[in-house]
Amino acid sequence: MLFLNKKMFGVFVSTTLIYTTCMAQDIEVKDGWQLYGATEDIEITKFDKECIDIIWKYDGLSKQWSAYSPKLDIASLLGSNSVMNKLDIANGFWVLGNGNCNITDPIIHNGVEYGSVTSPYTSRVWLDRNLGASQVCTAFDDDACFGDYYQWGRDADGHEKVGSLTTPIQATNVINVGHGDFITSSDVEDIPNEDGEEITYNYNNDWASDSDENGTLRVAQWSKTDGSSICPVGFRVPTASEIEAEIFNNDKNISNATLAYESFLKLPSAGFRFFGNGNLSYDGDRGFLWSNSGSSTYSSYLYFNSSTAFMRNNDEYRADGKSVRCIKN
After folding, report:
1. Domain of 31?
2. Which residues, including other chains, have CB under 8 Å from residue 274's CB and lie 6 or more apart?
3. pLDDT surpasses 60 at 106
4. Which H or E run contains 240?
5. Is 296 left (phi over 0), alpha (psi -120 to 50) or beta?
6. Mean pLDDT lowest among 106-120, 139-153, 214-228
7. Where would I find the beta strands (DSSP E) of 196-277?
8. Could you tell me if 55 and 69 are in contact, meaning their C-beta atoms sit under 8 angstroms apart?
9. Residue closest to 50 by CA, chosen among 99, 85, 1
10. Are 303 and 259 in contact (CB under 8 A)?
11. Do both 293 and 282 map to the same domain?
């Protein structure tokens, strides 16, 4: 335990240093000064985040303060000997944050690197971008953050890529489709058989209605947290109520596409892939975000455009390709 009385960049801090139980690999940053304890050795560049202004620590042996900042030239301000280059296990350190974020190791899944963000309303942890997106959104119509377009309940088999081929043949196995084509569908399909005769199939606007009409198997698939489904280890596809809790049940009610982007989730207007032909529609204009909630032949998703936002809970177009944002279990 160490008593501190130190003026840091114009801020007087007088407190008792107690090592917290916060894991170094999951440091939740908020506005203002916060005190943490390192539970393992930490590379200082881990704090190269927009939400971080300054990192401070006190060395009890040398009785010297050192600092690190991704934004300020600490060497010019305090001298080269005051530049922090690492945090060792059991070091206590101060963080001056300017927003809410999580300082974590990169989350890598299916070759894509993600970060995480913590909800200021529910304290739930989410991926910082849509599945498949190469970066966090810089604008509501930033196509680099649109990500992939999943058919409801389907695994990451290649169909989710915007340029994937299409096929009108409905899947007979929802767990292992056997190919990466986007499955087009309508209420009915007339498909030639081996003899050239057109056979009418009732597809119910689904990519796999015959093999999982009520969606039970697909809900289970998207609920997995072991990394074998579309979300990284420890994450899964959210339910409709979990999305609603972030979008509508707080003091920052999201009511249009602009507010969806300005939210802590930075949701883009990625559009969707049309179930009938696989074409991308409304990209840069409207947002569609799948949930893992479904009943009978219906599924739920979040919809938003320039003037409105709502959960649609009776969507019958499971063959549509829509965005997915994972939540920590």
Report:
1. 2-104
2. 280, 281, 320
3. yes
4. helix 240-247
5. left
6. 106-120
7. 198-202, 235-236, 272-273
8. yes
9. 99
10. no
11. yes
Residues 231 and 265 in one domain: yes
Are 93 and 124 members of one domain?
no
Does some domain include residue 75?
yes
Residue 182 lies in a domain: no
Token representation of residue 67: 């600092």
Predicted TM-score of the model (pTM) = 0.71
H or E segment to which residue 75 belongs: helix 74-78
Residue with tokens 């530049």: 83
pLDDT surpassing 50 at residue 14: no
Together in a domain, 131 and 246: yes
Tell me, what's the pLDDT at 20? 31
How far apart CA 149 and CA 163 sit, in angstroms, is 10
Q: Let me know whether 29 and 138 are in one domain.
A: no
Structure tokens at 136: 């966090």
Q: 78 and 59: one domain?
A: yes
Residues 148 and 297 in one domain: yes
For residues 103 and 106, give the distance between their C-alpha atoms in angstroms, rounded to a whole number: 9
Given a cut of 60, is residue 280 above it in pLDDT? Answer: yes
Name the token pair of 151.
């058919």
Q: Is residue 125 located within the same domain as residue 83? A: no
Determine the Cα–Cα distance for residues 307 and 122; give it in Å rounded to an integer: 25
Total domain count for the chain? Answer: 2
The length of the chain in residues reads 329
Annotate 136-192 with three-state secondary structure: CCCCCCCHHHCCCCEECCCCCCCCCCCCCCEECCCCCCCCCCCCCCEECCCCEEEEE
pLDDT single digits (tens) 144-202: 999 999 999 999 999 999 999 999 888 999 999 999 999 998 655 555 556 666 555 55
Given a cut of 80, is residue 7 above it in pLDDT?
A: no
- What one-character DSSP code corresponds to residue 227? S
Q: How many CB atoms lie within 10 A of CB 84?
A: 20
